[in-house]
Amino acid sequence: VDGGALMNDQRYDVVIVGGGLVGASLACALAQAWRVAVIESFPLMRAGAPAQYQPSFDARSTALSLSTVRFFEQLGLWQAIRRNAASIRHIHVSDRGRFGSVMLDADEEGLEALGYVVENQWIGNVLHEGLRRCAGLDVFAPASVESVSVHAAGTRVLVRQDGTVSAFDARLLVIADGARSGLAASLGMQTEHKDYEQHALIANIAHRKPHHGRAFERFTNAGPLAMLPLIDTPEGESRSALVWVQPPAEAARVAGLEPQQFLGALQQRFGYRLGRLTRAGSVHVYPLSLLRATEQVRSGVVLLGNAAHSLHPVAGQGFNLSVRDVAALAETLAAARAAGQEPGSLAVLQDFVRRQSFDQERTIGFSDALPRVFGSGLLPLALARDLGLIGMDVFAPARSVLVRHATGLMV
Ligand SMILES: Cc1cc2nc3c(=O)[nH]c(=O)nc-3n(C[C@H](O)[C@H](O)[C@H](O)COP(=O)(O)OP(=O)(O)OC[C@H]3O[C@@H](n4cnc5c(N)ncnc54)[C@H](O)[C@@H]3O)c2cc1C
Predict the structure, then answer these.
(1) What does the pLDDT read at residue 192?
(2) What is the pTM of this model?
(3) Using CA of residue 107, residue 110, residue 111, residue 114, what is the dihedral sign?
């Protein structure tokens, strides 16, 4: 160990590396039953931050499915998240130049909403406030895991905080350090990578007409375009989150346009269903690719979140799938405890993988199929594609013929 003294050992049942959306969700789910440490490179959100939260025009957001909502309800966090969530009450799907348009409606399905769109920062605020309130949970932030070694008796993690390096011993180490996980790589846990050669252009857009909870998905041969409802800004501006998929060169050209030209190009493509588009926030371009760990568990170690699978944002499924993984891991560990098994034993972790493998295969397979069916004129493929931007899970409870049709391909 260089550059700092090595402090005494600290022992935990579970050490989680990464306090991002996934690591923090798992910590909240495990803290009642286990002694848990979370190690996060960035500082936690300030105490009391939720009370002072102001939505910012450019914040990135995530579409939460109803299964994710149920998970947060069980943790007692949903009421707080809901305060700054926009409900998706209708989904308007249209395919330019092919079959007309289709509307999915929450009322018709007997649901309060088909899903919710929430700013990531707000979810983070609520989760970090949750971490503060949990007994049995120690958060080290800002602190960084420097190395990990796995032994027969457990896993040892070296953590640097304020220039001091401490050793943490874990019965189970959860690596939730994001895509291209440095720690998984250091253990030799490999990742597959597939580039779709399409880019998603993401920006928040203000418009004249209120969205009334409508999400729009519009398809063209060049790629799909979605506008998802967001909560209004404090100034009362109506906003939606744009996801616009295009070939890389076209995405780069459009992203480089002056703001007014950009809005003009978008207006031409999207039309006037939300009235005149009045403002575009900063534009981000994401190459669409799939990253997937080929080895998700080994004795004493499990990969979660983007470290385990990172899907392209078009499917809007990455976080929702990870939340289902988190819930399944928490249940598997509770069952192991009741059976007197070690939380980090390979048999227990393989149970978790078995439990989630169908869901992972299905969700990853579906999001992987999306880029291939863009531009396809085949009706069933086109339907599946139409449902793709927001993701099948948002639709899962919906019982319309359209949804049943599409899920035939997805399940
Ligand atoms: C544009 C876009 C839109 C998306 N939209 C949706 C959507 O609508 N619905 C959906 O379900 N998903 C969506 N996703 C996916 C979603 O954002 C991810 O699934 C989610 O952010 C993954 O979280 P994570 O906690 O695994 O990783 P991260 O958010 O990357 O967190 C990893 C954390 O680990 C910390 N860390 C890393 N290394 C160390 C270390 N050595 N020591 C300590 N800490 C460390 C980092 O600081 C970070 O906080 C979208 C993704 C993108 C890019």
Answers:
(1) 94
(2) 0.89
(3) negative
